[in-house]
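Handout, tutorial session.
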Amino acid sequence: MVNAIKEISKHTNLYNNIVNDFVKSDETKIINNVLYYRTIPEGLMYLSHFKNGHDLKFSSNFENFGTMIDLSRGAVFNISYIKYLIRTKALMGANEMWLYMEDVYELIDYPVFGYLRGKYTKDELLEIVEYSKIFGVKLIPAIQTLGHMEQFLRWNKARPYKDQSEILIANNENTYKLIDSMFKLMKEVFETDKIHIGLDETFGLGFGSYFKQYGFKNPRDIFLDHLVLVEKIAKEHGFSDILVWSDMFYRTQSKTNSYYDLEMNFNEEVLNKIPKSITLVYWDYYNEKYEIVDKMIKNHKQLNRKITFASGTWIWTRFTYDKVKTDKTALVHLEAAINNGIKDFILTQWGDDGAYGDHLTTLLGVYELSVKANTKNDFCKKTFNDITSLDYDILLNKTKLNETTMNQVGLLWDDPQYAMYLNNYTYNNLDNFDKHIKELETLIKLYEKDVAYENELNIVLSNYYKILGRKAMIESYIKNEEINASIYFEKQIHYLNKLNNTFRNRWYKLNKMYGLDVIQSRFGTQIIRAEEMINLEKEYNNKKITKIDGLLDKTAVYDEGLSLKFINLAYTTRPF
């Protein structure tokens, strides 16, 4: 504890001299100016609230409570930011942090593994682990040993390891040598017998190169056989607590290929084949009904293995933390986990589609949920501000970016001419535009007030002028009049350039450089497409063209909840 306070004091003096001494104990409390602490994170959490007049009463709901940070979807956090997260989350009471790394760690014998992706060297990982020990935070490697390997498998040199575009080939010597190298490095770096081996979302398993080499085999059997082999290799390297995302146990059994299949029953063959050392990670970021979550936990218990619950502080497919979505889901998940005696709870922060979300804003959710999960107290704004060196109210306002009818991410990446995302809400009907314009005007008034909202303001203004430009084009085009929309697209371009500047400044503070190119290529595409709308206007007004294709096409797809991972929307670089 002394070393933790010394390290924190290098960054703030707020926690100096609150108490005179620290004593390890079976209960966390302050008596006669002495902090008695059960664990370092619990002691730090108590201290951070005590200084603001709050006496925390711990509930002991969980043995392990922490977060998972996604380092694989473009944004690879720099060492400085990871250290900030470790000490900040320790002050919030988190005692565990998973590092989700698909291919962003260095395997010397596999040079295309993590090539140009910002992969961590062994020394960098060792530095992080040493730092975490100061705060009593357990760092857990969360890797992939079957699916989600598309960044590695896109290279021709990775062909010997490939089944499908995203899936390693099972039952193959090359694959298990690769996995052996993964575990070897993880054991050399991380001081834990716990490891997450992934294995989620392996859609199409066994129907690529596997099928050509070995013929048909039930994907369920391929999956279970692979799990047994990988578990064996993990144990050979000294790992005894082996975590697996649980969805494929359900998907390979379900008649509807559904994870959340409430009628699932597992036969003895499946139960007997799952190794005893496996911990099932029930991940659920979507269900808002307690009854569904409760039944899913009870269904997991059929498998007779240890269970960890992974919920989320929503940031993926968002530019800022989504408090409304998180409160609707994670609070329900917490309640169900506590009532079912689940002792391990993790909050994930995925970075799907390029990790463009402002990760700092997720600290709002981590703090609020940590207080809810681990104490009988209410959260304290002043304590949050002290812990993070951020302003609670400013972050709360940033989350309002997600409270519009349309997702601002979908709108920003949408094409101004064809408007696949926008038309999902407006149907190309001018009467439907004003609602969305007014929502953006409300946000503009909010974000104009403080320079702290500069990035959010640039997002909103870029989208605002994009919608105004499209509306103006349609209005004139319908009437066969001269189009006067270029002023809006010129302003859109102006704010897109400003957005690029504010975005890159934040990126360089928190991340390695890798991955910024993907987002900037999207900004660049939007600028070029806005310029094209200006050119189309000129050519139409000068009678060089008589038709603008796509502008008034009848909307055939709407109310469909188009994916914000942009497999089917406008994008320039394949999403992560």
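The second record follows below. Compare its token runs with those of the first.
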Amino acid sequence: MNFFQAQDDARRRTKWLVVYFILAVIGVIISVYGVVAIAMTYLGTGSPFMPSVFLVTAVITGGVMGTGSLFKSMQLNGGGSVVARDMGARQVDAHTTDTDERRLVNVVEEMAIASGVPVPEIWIMDEELGINAFAAGTEPGNAVVAVTRGCLQRLTRDELQGVVAHEFSHILNGDMRLNMRLMGLLFGILMISMIGRTLFHALRFMNVRSSSRDNKGGGGVVIAILLAGVGLMIVGSIGVFFGRLIQAAISRQREYLADASAVQFTRDTNGIAGALMKIGGQEYGSKINAAKAAEASHLFFADGGMFSYGLATHPPLDRRIKALEKSWDGKFISTQLPDVALGRAAQRDARLSGFSGDTSTPPPLPGQTRVARSEMNQLGEPSRIDAAVGRHLHAGLDAEWIHACHDREEAQALIFGLLLAEDNQLREEEVLFVQKGAGHDAGELSVEWNHKLTDLHSSVKIALVDLAIPTLRRLSLPEYERFVEITQWLIASDGQVDLFEFMLQHIVQRHLDSHFRRTGHDKIRYRRIEQLETESNVLLTTMAALGGEDQMESAYRSALEESGATMTMLPPSECGLKNVEQALEKFDAATPLVKKQLLRMLGMAVMHDGSIESREAELLRATADAIGCSVPPFVKNS
């Protein structure tokens, strides 16, 4: 399934999620009323049907569940790190020297570069020995990928890459955001069970004999509380049943799609299939022991082993493996703990020889690759994502660049350097502003990075931005506000700013705002591209102008012929940065399929001569990112 279609499908399923939730609330309200009616009848104060009591019960129960869901949903707006902490995970240091963790960091970064999304935060569940993983977040800008210790110890690099690719599929096709909303709603359903457990445990602090002696009705009150507690726990189990039903309905079939996408991303069936076989062949399986694992069971790579009343959130292992490998013989793979210090002697020898890490020669960075017209017809296709391209680009990055992207101070200077102007006089003014706002060393470092990165392929610049995003999330809020102020000034300091640099700044701020300001995405407001005709025209005219004034009109007409739209090219005065920014903000609130229509139209404008130069292609990627779409690099793995 095309990812634009998958995201649109996930958006539509959100409506069904709300319907399921309402039905679950009604079922729980009726069950709670039954418990209350039985308790009142036992005390001699009620009858089987009491309309006023039912109304009060409905208001209180619905209020409790709604409040619980609202509270949890607001908490989850903090992004995937909230879920990771609930699972007892810890964040991986990007500078880690641990071999297993270093391998994980490389795999995740390569997959992010190949997918065209910011690198998610990387977390490890150290106490979990089963083979499992999850992706969580409200959008790619605040996403996390977490794996268990069992993943690191039991899986090969290819198998780990398959698991990570599976989780990236959930990020790209919209499942991740849907799953976060499901977590918020499920918490409200589980509130009743929590209250029942609280009442039941409260009896431990009450003296039944004393209550009976001091108050003739005291014993009855205690028994009523006991019945209410047990009853609410039973009703809570009904809520849990509804929760599992919703989880199964929403997530079960999506696992097959994520498995298939992982194979397309990695071009390797053995990786993810091998991971699934090892789950079936080891003692701990994919079990998750974290206390809050049940709330997030639908997020995991495999069934976490929680009691599911027969409503599993994941398909059986054998079916998933059979779907990937038709000739599978039905045998699982038994695993053992890796040898102590495996490979460390070779690493030590490499360090003593003056090297660290991989000693192979990195592949050359991509040149000015021309993109064929067919590439534009494949926008959103899983086949366009190739993990090998991510590995190719990542391996071609200088170790100094990667280190800078992982350092919170240097990452800021690197971004400043990417945004400095080409004009010497203007650049001097910009450096003075950086020095005034962030210090003398920051200005000098920005100039150094500008010299090092100016002539790089634009896909590499985007890769560096993607690598820097998780590091920049570690800034304090005042530091982030200063960072944004400087980057915005660098863009606005010249009315003729480079459009690619403007887009870089826009996507950096967009992804970081979701973390620091919890802005999230706007609600869908535009469902047809005709509603955004003016904004489409602004972006189309701007993109058509990339080839120069002599080709601008023909590029514009070429895009209109492909799209069937009827518009008139705007004058340059109506396509300034402010107009472009407003157009991007509105398209961010459009449906995925509307965004796809826009990107295809813009692509046809820049390839009216039959192909797209690399910088034009990467500008198209940056534009896509600015409206919430992930487009992989337009480079091939040579």
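Points raised in discussion: Strands lie at 90-91, 121-125, 133-136, 144-148, 371-372, 611-612.
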